[in-house]
Design goal:
The protein has 18 helices and 16 strands. It has a seven-stranded mixed beta sheet with strand order 5-11-10-9-8-6-7, with helices on both faces. A five-stranded mixed beta sheet has the order 12-13-16-15-14. The protein has a four-stranded antiparallel beta sheet with strand order 1-3-2-4. The two termini are 47 Å apart. The chain is globular. It is of the alpha/beta class.
Length: 525
Protein backbone atom coordinates (compact mmCIF):
# COMPACT_ATOMS: atom_id res chain seq x y z
CA UNK A 1 0.00 0.00 0.00
CA UNK A 2 1.44 3.36 -1.09
CA UNK A 3 1.85 6.52 0.99
CA UNK A 4 3.35 9.88 0.05
CA UNK A 5 6.05 10.09 2.72
CA UNK A 6 8.05 8.04 5.18
CA UNK A 7 6.13 9.61 8.05
CA UNK A 8 2.68 8.60 6.79
CA UNK A 9 3.82 5.07 5.93
CA UNK A 10 5.48 4.60 9.31
CA UNK A 11 2.29 5.76 11.02
CA UNK A 12 0.33 3.15 9.06
CA UNK A 13 2.84 0.48 10.05
CA UNK A 14 2.40 1.36 13.71
CA UNK A 15 -1.39 1.12 13.36
CA UNK A 16 -1.08 -2.37 11.88
CA UNK A 17 1.40 -3.58 14.50
CA UNK A 18 -0.97 -2.65 17.30
CA UNK A 19 -3.71 -4.85 15.83
CA UNK A 20 -2.21 -7.95 14.21
CA UNK A 21 -1.19 -11.16 15.91
CA UNK A 22 2.34 -11.10 17.28
CA UNK A 23 3.59 -13.74 14.84
CA UNK A 24 2.76 -11.45 11.89
CA UNK A 25 4.79 -8.47 13.12
CA UNK A 26 8.16 -9.69 11.73
CA UNK A 27 6.60 -9.86 8.25
CA UNK A 28 5.63 -6.17 8.29
CA UNK A 29 7.93 -3.68 6.61
CA UNK A 30 8.13 -0.28 4.95
CA UNK A 31 10.12 0.70 1.88
CA UNK A 32 10.88 4.40 1.53
CA UNK A 33 11.74 5.68 -1.95
CA UNK A 34 13.36 9.05 -2.52
CA UNK A 35 15.31 10.75 -5.27
CA UNK A 36 18.74 9.19 -5.70
CA UNK A 37 21.11 11.91 -4.54
CA UNK A 38 24.02 10.20 -6.29
CA UNK A 39 22.48 10.85 -9.71
CA UNK A 40 23.23 14.08 -11.52
CA UNK A 41 19.56 14.84 -12.06
CA UNK A 42 18.09 18.08 -13.32
CA UNK A 43 17.74 21.03 -10.92
CA UNK A 44 13.98 20.94 -11.52
CA UNK A 45 13.71 17.39 -10.27
CA UNK A 46 15.89 18.18 -7.27
CA UNK A 47 13.55 21.01 -6.32
CA UNK A 48 10.48 18.83 -6.77
CA UNK A 49 12.15 16.03 -4.76
CA UNK A 50 9.40 13.40 -5.12
CA UNK A 51 9.03 10.70 -2.47
CA UNK A 52 6.80 7.68 -2.04
CA UNK A 53 6.70 4.88 0.53
CA UNK A 54 5.19 1.40 0.49
CA UNK A 55 3.84 -0.56 3.44
CA UNK A 56 4.44 -4.28 2.94
CA UNK A 57 2.30 -6.79 4.80
CA UNK A 58 1.00 -10.36 4.50
CA UNK A 59 -2.59 -10.78 3.38
CA UNK A 60 -3.71 -11.51 6.94
CA UNK A 61 -2.68 -7.98 7.94
CA UNK A 62 -4.09 -6.24 4.87
CA UNK A 63 -7.52 -5.48 6.41
CA UNK A 64 -5.79 -3.30 9.01
CA UNK A 65 -3.72 -1.54 6.36
CA UNK A 66 -6.92 -0.87 4.44
CA UNK A 67 -8.59 0.51 7.56
CA UNK A 68 -5.76 2.97 8.09
CA UNK A 69 -5.70 4.01 4.43
CA UNK A 70 -9.49 4.46 4.29
CA UNK A 71 -10.01 6.28 7.58
CA UNK A 72 -7.05 8.67 7.54
CA UNK A 73 -6.90 9.70 3.88
CA UNK A 74 -3.10 9.44 4.14
CA UNK A 75 -2.65 7.40 0.95
CA UNK A 76 -0.67 8.54 -2.09
CA UNK A 77 -2.67 10.18 -4.87
CA UNK A 78 -2.78 8.41 -8.22
CA UNK A 79 -0.88 11.26 -9.89
CA UNK A 80 1.95 11.06 -7.36
CA UNK A 81 2.07 7.27 -7.69
CA UNK A 82 2.12 7.46 -11.49
CA UNK A 83 4.88 10.05 -11.52
CA UNK A 84 7.03 8.16 -9.00
CA UNK A 85 6.49 4.93 -10.92
CA UNK A 86 7.98 6.59 -13.98
CA UNK A 87 10.99 7.75 -11.97
CA UNK A 88 11.40 4.28 -10.49
CA UNK A 89 11.44 2.71 -13.95
CA UNK A 90 14.13 5.21 -14.89
CA UNK A 91 16.19 4.21 -11.83
CA UNK A 92 15.91 7.69 -10.32
CA UNK A 93 14.28 6.65 -7.03
CA UNK A 94 16.35 4.96 -4.34
CA UNK A 95 15.11 2.76 -1.52
CA UNK A 96 16.49 3.98 1.78
CA UNK A 97 16.32 2.22 5.12
CA UNK A 98 17.01 5.40 7.07
CA UNK A 99 14.05 7.77 7.30
CA UNK A 100 16.39 10.66 8.01
CA UNK A 101 17.79 10.44 4.49
CA UNK A 102 14.37 11.12 3.03
CA UNK A 103 14.11 14.87 2.58
CA UNK A 104 10.50 15.83 3.19
CA UNK A 105 9.46 18.69 0.95
CA UNK A 106 6.82 21.10 2.23
CA UNK A 107 6.40 23.16 -0.93
CA UNK A 108 7.80 21.68 -4.11
CA UNK A 109 5.70 23.45 -6.72
CA UNK A 110 5.96 23.19 -10.47
CA UNK A 111 3.96 24.19 -13.47
CA UNK A 112 2.42 21.75 -15.90
CA UNK A 113 1.52 22.27 -19.54
CA UNK A 114 -1.42 24.36 -20.64
CA UNK A 115 -3.78 21.39 -20.54
CA UNK A 116 -3.49 21.62 -16.72
CA UNK A 117 -4.60 25.25 -16.79
CA UNK A 118 -7.95 24.72 -18.47
CA UNK A 119 -10.88 22.54 -17.53
CA UNK A 120 -9.98 18.99 -18.43
CA UNK A 121 -10.64 15.43 -17.40
CA UNK A 122 -8.08 13.17 -15.82
CA UNK A 123 -8.06 11.16 -19.03
CA UNK A 124 -6.55 14.13 -20.85
CA UNK A 125 -3.36 13.72 -18.85
CA UNK A 126 -1.20 11.06 -20.41
CA UNK A 127 0.87 8.56 -18.51
CA UNK A 128 4.52 9.42 -18.14
CA UNK A 129 6.50 8.12 -21.07
CA UNK A 130 9.91 7.23 -19.72
CA UNK A 131 12.92 8.26 -21.70
CA UNK A 132 15.43 5.67 -22.81
CA UNK A 133 16.42 3.36 -19.93
CA UNK A 134 19.37 4.59 -17.94
CA UNK A 135 22.60 2.70 -18.40
CA UNK A 136 25.97 2.98 -16.67
CA UNK A 137 27.04 5.22 -19.56
CA UNK A 138 24.25 7.77 -19.22
CA UNK A 139 22.98 7.39 -15.65
CA UNK A 140 24.64 10.63 -14.57
CA UNK A 141 23.37 12.78 -17.41
CA UNK A 142 20.95 15.41 -16.08
CA UNK A 143 19.26 15.66 -19.47
CA UNK A 144 17.67 12.25 -18.85
CA UNK A 145 15.67 13.50 -15.87
CA UNK A 146 14.94 16.77 -17.67
CA UNK A 147 13.55 14.77 -20.59
CA UNK A 148 11.36 12.78 -18.20
CA UNK A 149 9.96 15.94 -16.60
CA UNK A 150 9.29 17.55 -19.97
CA UNK A 151 7.48 14.47 -21.25
CA UNK A 152 5.35 14.40 -18.13
CA UNK A 153 4.68 18.08 -17.52
CA UNK A 154 5.62 20.00 -20.66
CA UNK A 155 8.63 22.15 -21.44
CA UNK A 156 7.68 25.38 -19.69
CA UNK A 157 8.13 24.38 -16.07
CA UNK A 158 7.49 27.15 -13.56
CA UNK A 159 7.94 26.01 -9.99
CA UNK A 160 6.25 29.16 -8.70
CA UNK A 161 2.88 28.31 -10.25
CA UNK A 162 1.86 25.68 -7.70
CA UNK A 163 2.73 27.94 -4.78
CA UNK A 164 0.45 30.60 -6.26
CA UNK A 165 -2.22 27.95 -6.87
CA UNK A 166 -2.10 26.89 -3.21
CA UNK A 167 -2.37 30.49 -2.15
CA UNK A 168 -5.36 31.02 -4.44
CA UNK A 169 -7.12 27.94 -3.02
CA UNK A 170 -6.49 29.01 0.58
CA UNK A 171 -7.76 32.53 -0.12
CA UNK A 172 -10.81 31.16 -1.91
CA UNK A 173 -11.62 29.01 1.12
CA UNK A 174 -11.00 31.93 3.48
CA UNK A 175 -13.42 34.00 1.42
CA UNK A 176 -10.84 36.59 0.42
CA UNK A 177 -10.61 35.63 -3.27
CA UNK A 178 -14.00 35.76 -4.96
CA UNK A 179 -13.05 36.19 -8.61
CA UNK A 180 -11.05 34.27 -11.19
CA UNK A 181 -7.35 35.00 -11.42
CA UNK A 182 -4.55 34.20 -13.86
CA UNK A 183 -1.76 32.33 -12.10
CA UNK A 184 0.60 33.17 -14.95
CA UNK A 185 0.38 36.90 -14.32
CA UNK A 186 2.83 36.81 -11.42
CA UNK A 187 1.97 37.37 -7.77
CA UNK A 188 -1.64 37.25 -6.64
CA UNK A 189 -3.50 40.48 -5.91
CA UNK A 190 -3.77 41.62 -2.31
CA UNK A 191 -6.45 39.65 -0.42
CA UNK A 192 -9.90 41.21 -0.33
CA UNK A 193 -11.84 41.49 2.95
CA UNK A 194 -13.03 37.95 3.58
CA UNK A 195 -16.66 36.85 3.41
CA UNK A 196 -16.34 34.53 6.42
CA UNK A 197 -17.24 37.30 8.85
CA UNK A 198 -13.92 37.14 10.72
CA UNK A 199 -11.65 39.97 9.65
CA UNK A 200 -8.73 38.47 11.59
CA UNK A 201 -8.87 35.31 9.44
CA UNK A 202 -5.70 35.03 7.36
CA UNK A 203 -4.56 32.79 4.54
CA UNK A 204 -2.14 30.98 6.85
CA UNK A 205 -5.09 29.81 8.97
CA UNK A 206 -6.20 27.57 6.09
CA UNK A 207 -4.46 24.19 5.74
CA UNK A 208 -4.69 22.03 2.60
CA UNK A 209 -4.70 18.23 2.58
CA UNK A 210 -4.81 15.56 -0.13
CA UNK A 211 -8.31 14.40 0.90
CA UNK A 212 -11.23 15.46 3.05
CA UNK A 213 -10.75 12.59 5.49
CA UNK A 214 -7.13 13.63 5.88
CA UNK A 215 -8.31 17.08 6.99
CA UNK A 216 -10.56 15.51 9.64
CA UNK A 217 -7.83 13.11 10.74
CA UNK A 218 -5.30 15.92 11.14
CA UNK A 219 -7.80 18.18 12.92
CA UNK A 220 -8.31 15.40 15.48
CA UNK A 221 -4.56 14.83 15.79
CA UNK A 222 -3.99 18.57 16.30
CA UNK A 223 -6.55 18.65 19.10
CA UNK A 224 -4.94 15.64 20.78
CA UNK A 225 -1.55 17.32 20.51
CA UNK A 226 -2.83 20.66 21.81
CA UNK A 227 -5.23 19.49 24.52
CA UNK A 228 -4.15 16.00 25.56
CA UNK A 229 -5.69 12.55 25.47
CA UNK A 230 -9.41 13.17 25.92
CA UNK A 231 -12.41 11.45 24.38
CA UNK A 232 -14.33 13.21 21.61
CA UNK A 233 -18.02 13.63 20.86
CA UNK A 234 -19.47 12.58 17.51
CA UNK A 235 -22.72 14.52 17.25
CA UNK A 236 -25.16 13.47 14.54
CA UNK A 237 -25.24 10.52 12.17
CA UNK A 238 -21.78 10.74 10.62
CA UNK A 239 -19.95 9.98 7.46
CA UNK A 240 -18.65 6.53 8.35
CA UNK A 241 -14.92 7.33 8.47
CA UNK A 242 -15.32 10.33 10.79
CA UNK A 243 -16.68 8.10 13.53
CA UNK A 244 -13.94 5.52 12.89
CA UNK A 245 -11.22 8.18 13.23
CA UNK A 246 -12.54 9.25 16.63
CA UNK A 247 -12.89 5.64 17.78
CA UNK A 248 -9.57 4.23 16.55
CA UNK A 249 -7.02 7.06 16.71
CA UNK A 250 -7.28 8.25 20.28
CA UNK A 251 -9.05 7.54 23.57
CA UNK A 252 -12.39 7.01 21.77
CA UNK A 253 -15.63 8.96 21.61
CA UNK A 254 -19.23 9.14 22.72
CA UNK A 255 -21.81 9.05 19.95
CA UNK A 256 -25.10 10.93 19.63
CA UNK A 257 -26.63 9.78 16.37
CA UNK A 258 -29.71 11.98 16.01
CA UNK A 259 -28.22 15.47 16.46
CA UNK A 260 -31.45 16.39 18.24
CA UNK A 261 -32.33 18.68 21.13
CA UNK A 262 -32.80 15.55 23.23
CA UNK A 263 -29.25 14.48 22.37
CA UNK A 264 -27.99 17.88 23.49
CA UNK A 265 -29.97 17.57 26.73
CA UNK A 266 -28.29 14.22 27.41
CA UNK A 267 -24.88 15.64 26.55
CA UNK A 268 -25.42 18.56 28.90
CA UNK A 269 -26.33 16.18 31.73
CA UNK A 270 -23.11 14.26 31.07
CA UNK A 271 -21.07 17.47 31.09
CA UNK A 272 -22.66 18.66 34.33
CA UNK A 273 -21.71 15.36 35.95
CA UNK A 274 -18.04 16.19 35.40
CA UNK A 275 -17.16 14.45 32.14
CA UNK A 276 -14.68 16.38 30.00
CA UNK A 277 -14.08 16.05 26.28
CA UNK A 278 -11.53 16.96 23.63
CA UNK A 279 -13.98 18.29 21.08
CA UNK A 280 -17.34 17.82 19.40
CA UNK A 281 -17.32 16.77 15.73
CA UNK A 282 -20.41 17.27 13.58
CA UNK A 283 -21.53 17.79 10.00
CA UNK A 284 -23.68 20.69 8.88
CA UNK A 285 -25.92 19.42 7.39
CA UNK A 286 -25.48 15.73 8.17
CA UNK A 287 -25.24 12.89 5.69
CA UNK A 288 -27.57 11.39 4.49
CA UNK A 289 -30.54 12.80 6.46
CA UNK A 290 -29.43 16.45 6.10
CA UNK A 291 -30.17 17.09 9.78
CA UNK A 292 -28.67 20.30 11.16
CA UNK A 293 -27.56 20.42 14.81
CA UNK A 294 -28.12 23.51 16.95
CA UNK A 295 -24.65 25.03 16.58
CA UNK A 296 -25.42 28.05 18.76
CA UNK A 297 -26.33 25.84 21.72
CA UNK A 298 -23.32 23.62 21.04
CA UNK A 299 -21.10 26.72 21.10
CA UNK A 300 -22.52 27.78 24.46
CA UNK A 301 -21.91 24.32 25.92
CA UNK A 302 -18.39 24.25 24.49
CA UNK A 303 -17.54 27.60 26.07
CA UNK A 304 -18.96 26.56 29.44
CA UNK A 305 -17.45 23.07 29.59
CA UNK A 306 -14.20 23.63 27.70
CA UNK A 307 -14.28 21.52 24.55
CA UNK A 308 -13.56 22.42 20.93
CA UNK A 309 -16.13 22.43 18.12
CA UNK A 310 -15.16 20.94 14.75
CA UNK A 311 -17.72 21.36 11.96
CA UNK A 312 -17.63 19.66 8.57
CA UNK A 313 -19.17 22.12 6.09
CA UNK A 314 -18.75 19.92 2.99
CA UNK A 315 -22.47 19.55 2.25
CA UNK A 316 -23.59 23.03 3.26
CA UNK A 317 -20.54 24.79 1.74
CA UNK A 318 -19.31 28.22 2.74
CA UNK A 319 -21.17 29.68 -0.24
CA UNK A 320 -24.43 28.95 1.60
CA UNK A 321 -23.67 28.94 5.32
CA UNK A 322 -21.42 30.46 7.97
CA UNK A 323 -20.23 27.94 10.54
CA UNK A 324 -16.74 29.30 11.24
CA UNK A 325 -17.98 31.93 13.69
CA UNK A 326 -19.31 29.19 16.02
CA UNK A 327 -16.48 26.68 15.41
CA UNK A 328 -12.88 26.27 16.47
CA UNK A 329 -12.00 24.27 13.35
CA UNK A 330 -13.95 23.98 10.10
CA UNK A 331 -13.11 21.06 7.82
CA UNK A 332 -14.26 20.29 4.30
CA UNK A 333 -13.80 17.80 1.50
CA UNK A 334 -12.66 19.86 -1.49
CA UNK A 335 -13.14 16.73 -3.61
CA UNK A 336 -16.86 17.46 -3.69
CA UNK A 337 -18.56 20.63 -4.94
CA UNK A 338 -15.50 22.86 -4.44
CA UNK A 339 -13.87 20.91 -7.29
CA UNK A 340 -16.96 19.49 -8.96
CA UNK A 341 -15.06 17.95 -11.87
CA UNK A 342 -14.46 14.52 -10.29
CA UNK A 343 -10.82 14.47 -11.36
CA UNK A 344 -8.96 15.48 -8.19
CA UNK A 345 -9.16 15.06 -4.43
CA UNK A 346 -8.45 17.50 -1.63
CA UNK A 347 -9.40 18.66 1.83
CA UNK A 348 -9.08 21.74 4.01
CA UNK A 349 -9.09 22.75 7.65
CA UNK A 350 -9.57 26.32 8.89
CA UNK A 351 -8.53 27.51 12.32
CA UNK A 352 -10.79 30.17 13.80
CA UNK A 353 -8.35 32.94 14.84
CA UNK A 354 -10.78 34.04 17.57
CA UNK A 355 -10.92 30.60 19.19
CA UNK A 356 -9.43 30.28 22.66
CA UNK A 357 -7.58 27.21 21.37
CA UNK A 358 -6.16 29.02 18.34
CA UNK A 359 -2.57 29.48 19.52
CA UNK A 360 -2.29 25.93 20.86
CA UNK A 361 -3.78 24.46 17.67
CA UNK A 362 -1.61 26.65 15.47
CA UNK A 363 1.51 25.50 17.27
CA UNK A 364 0.40 21.86 17.16
CA UNK A 365 -0.22 21.96 13.42
CA UNK A 366 2.83 24.00 12.44
CA UNK A 367 5.33 22.25 14.71
CA UNK A 368 4.04 18.71 15.02
CA UNK A 369 1.01 17.52 13.06
CA UNK A 370 0.83 19.14 9.64
CA UNK A 371 2.84 17.70 6.76
CA UNK A 372 2.27 19.10 3.29
CA UNK A 373 1.63 15.99 1.20
CA UNK A 374 -0.62 17.62 -1.41
CA UNK A 375 0.88 16.57 -4.74
CA UNK A 376 1.53 19.60 -7.01
CA UNK A 377 -0.38 18.23 -10.00
CA UNK A 378 -3.44 17.79 -7.80
CA UNK A 379 -3.08 21.37 -6.57
CA UNK A 380 -3.14 22.66 -10.16
CA UNK A 381 -6.32 20.75 -10.96
CA UNK A 382 -8.04 21.83 -7.74
CA UNK A 383 -7.27 25.50 -8.24
CA UNK A 384 -8.56 25.52 -11.79
CA UNK A 385 -11.70 23.54 -10.99
CA UNK A 386 -12.67 25.76 -8.06
CA UNK A 387 -12.57 29.12 -9.82
CA UNK A 388 -16.31 29.11 -10.55
CA UNK A 389 -17.28 27.38 -7.30
CA UNK A 390 -19.71 30.07 -6.10
CA UNK A 391 -21.60 30.26 -9.41
CA UNK A 392 -21.96 26.49 -9.53
CA UNK A 393 -23.35 26.38 -6.00
CA UNK A 394 -25.99 28.98 -6.91
CA UNK A 395 -27.13 26.90 -9.88
CA UNK A 396 -27.17 23.66 -7.87
CA UNK A 397 -29.24 25.29 -5.11
CA UNK A 398 -31.94 26.13 -7.66
CA UNK A 399 -31.88 22.66 -9.22
CA UNK A 400 -32.07 20.89 -5.86
CA UNK A 401 -35.16 22.81 -4.78
CA UNK A 402 -36.84 22.06 -8.11
CA UNK A 403 -36.15 18.33 -7.72
CA UNK A 404 -37.47 18.40 -4.16
CA UNK A 405 -40.73 19.95 -5.34
CA UNK A 406 -41.10 17.19 -7.94
CA UNK A 407 -40.48 14.46 -5.36
CA UNK A 408 -42.71 16.05 -2.72
CA UNK A 409 -45.63 16.00 -5.14
CA UNK A 410 -45.45 12.21 -5.59
CA UNK A 411 -47.65 9.88 -3.49
CA UNK A 412 -44.84 7.30 -3.65
CA UNK A 413 -42.52 9.40 -1.50
CA UNK A 414 -42.67 8.56 2.19
CA UNK A 415 -39.94 10.91 3.42
CA UNK A 416 -37.85 13.58 1.77
CA UNK A 417 -34.75 14.92 3.50
CA UNK A 418 -33.53 18.40 2.57
CA UNK A 419 -32.52 21.28 4.87
CA UNK A 420 -35.32 23.54 3.63
CA UNK A 421 -38.05 21.06 4.58
CA UNK A 422 -36.42 19.22 7.49
CA UNK A 423 -37.60 19.78 11.08
CA UNK A 424 -34.14 21.23 11.80
CA UNK A 425 -34.58 24.03 9.22
CA UNK A 426 -34.44 26.66 11.98
CA UNK A 427 -30.90 25.56 12.82
CA UNK A 428 -29.88 25.76 9.16
CA UNK A 429 -31.46 29.17 8.68
CA UNK A 430 -29.57 30.46 11.73
CA UNK A 431 -26.33 29.79 9.82
CA UNK A 432 -27.54 30.53 6.28
CA UNK A 433 -25.97 33.49 4.52
CA UNK A 434 -28.26 36.28 3.20
CA UNK A 435 -27.95 34.98 -0.38
CA UNK A 436 -27.32 31.35 0.54
CA UNK A 437 -29.40 28.40 -0.54
CA UNK A 438 -29.97 24.96 0.93
CA UNK A 439 -27.35 22.95 -0.92
CA UNK A 440 -27.30 20.20 -3.51
CA UNK A 441 -27.88 16.99 -1.54
CA UNK A 442 -31.31 15.37 -1.31
CA UNK A 443 -32.34 12.03 0.20
CA UNK A 444 -35.63 10.25 -0.40
CA UNK A 445 -37.38 7.18 1.03
CA UNK A 446 -40.29 5.59 -0.82
CA UNK A 447 -43.43 4.00 0.61
CA UNK A 448 -42.40 0.66 -0.86
CA UNK A 449 -38.97 -0.88 -1.31
CA UNK A 450 -39.84 -2.31 -4.72
CA UNK A 451 -41.01 1.10 -5.91
CA UNK A 452 -37.66 2.51 -4.79
CA UNK A 453 -35.83 -0.09 -6.89
CA UNK A 454 -37.87 0.70 -9.99
CA UNK A 455 -37.40 4.45 -9.50
CA UNK A 456 -33.65 4.01 -9.09
CA UNK A 457 -33.30 1.81 -12.17
CA UNK A 458 -35.42 4.20 -14.25
CA UNK A 459 -33.36 7.26 -13.32
CA UNK A 460 -31.50 8.34 -16.45
CA UNK A 461 -28.60 9.85 -14.53
CA UNK A 462 -25.19 8.69 -13.33
CA UNK A 463 -25.12 6.21 -10.45
CA UNK A 464 -22.34 6.28 -7.87
CA UNK A 465 -21.45 6.87 -4.21
CA UNK A 466 -19.86 10.33 -4.34
CA UNK A 467 -21.48 13.77 -4.06
CA UNK A 468 -20.82 17.33 -5.17
CA UNK A 469 -20.24 16.43 -8.81
CA UNK A 470 -21.11 18.89 -11.56
CA UNK A 471 -23.48 16.24 -12.94
CA UNK A 472 -26.41 14.77 -11.05
CA UNK A 473 -25.54 11.52 -9.30
CA UNK A 474 -27.58 9.13 -7.18
CA UNK A 475 -26.89 6.05 -5.10
CA UNK A 476 -28.48 3.62 -2.63
CA UNK A 477 -26.24 5.33 -0.10
CA UNK A 478 -27.06 3.35 3.04
CA UNK A 479 -26.52 0.00 1.34
CA UNK A 480 -23.14 1.17 0.07
CA UNK A 481 -21.87 2.93 3.19
CA UNK A 482 -23.42 0.84 5.97
CA UNK A 483 -24.14 -2.57 4.46
CA UNK A 484 -22.47 -4.41 7.35
CA UNK A 485 -24.35 -2.37 9.97
CA UNK A 486 -27.86 -1.77 8.59
CA UNK A 487 -29.67 -2.48 11.91
CA UNK A 488 -27.34 -0.01 13.66
CA UNK A 489 -28.08 2.68 11.06
CA UNK A 490 -31.83 2.01 11.22
CA UNK A 491 -32.00 2.85 14.92
CA UNK A 492 -31.03 6.42 13.98
CA UNK A 493 -33.77 6.70 11.38
CA UNK A 494 -31.56 5.84 8.40
CA UNK A 495 -33.67 3.62 6.14
CA UNK A 496 -31.72 0.95 4.21
CA UNK A 497 -33.72 1.70 1.03
CA UNK A 498 -32.90 5.43 1.13
CA UNK A 499 -31.81 6.93 -2.20
CA UNK A 500 -29.41 9.86 -2.04
CA UNK A 501 -29.23 12.37 -4.89
CA UNK A 502 -26.35 14.78 -5.46
CA UNK A 503 -27.76 17.48 -7.73
CA UNK A 504 -25.72 18.81 -10.63
CA UNK A 505 -25.64 21.65 -13.14
CA UNK A 506 -27.99 20.32 -15.80
CA UNK A 507 -30.88 22.43 -17.10
CA UNK A 508 -33.59 22.58 -14.44
CA UNK A 509 -36.40 21.54 -16.80
CA UNK A 510 -34.37 18.58 -18.01
CA UNK A 511 -33.74 17.37 -14.45
CA UNK A 512 -37.38 17.71 -13.45
CA UNK A 513 -38.45 15.76 -16.52
CA UNK A 514 -35.93 13.03 -15.73
CA UNK A 515 -37.26 12.62 -12.19
CA UNK A 516 -40.88 12.71 -13.34
CA UNK A 517 -40.24 9.88 -15.83
CA UNK A 518 -38.66 7.76 -13.10
CA UNK A 519 -41.60 8.44 -10.78
CA UNK A 520 -44.08 7.50 -13.52
CA UNK A 521 -42.19 4.25 -14.12
CA UNK A 522 -42.43 3.42 -10.41
CA UNK A 523 -46.12 4.33 -10.29
CA UNK A 524 -46.91 2.15 -13.31
CA UNK A 525 -45.17 -0.92 -11.92
Amino acid sequence: MLFPTARTATRCLGFIKERVKADLVPALDVVHLALDASKDVSPLLKRLYPTISAVLCPKEAFPFAKQYWQHTGDGASSRRAEFCHGLFRNHLLLATANNKTVQESHTRPFRGPRRYQRRASIDAVGSPTPGKPLTPDNAHEPQESTQFLEERFGRNLDLGLVERAKSAIRRRIAGSLCHEIDLHSGSLPAPSPNTRGLQSLAEHDVYLFPAGMNAIFNAHQALLSARGQLKSINFGFPYVDTLKILQKFGPGCVFYGNASSKDLDELEILLRSGHRFLGLFCEFPGNPLLTCPDLDRIRRLADEYDFAVVVDETIGTFANIDVLSVSDIVVSSLTKIFSGDSNVMGGSAILNPESKYYLALKQALDCDVFEDTYWPEDVIFMERNSRDFARRVDRINVNAEAICKTLRSSPLVKSLYYPKWNPSRENYDARRLPNGGYGGLVSVVFTDKEKAKIFYDAMEIAKGPSLGTNFTLCSPYVLLAHYQELPWAAQYGVDPSLIRVSVGLEETDHLQATFKRALLAAEAA
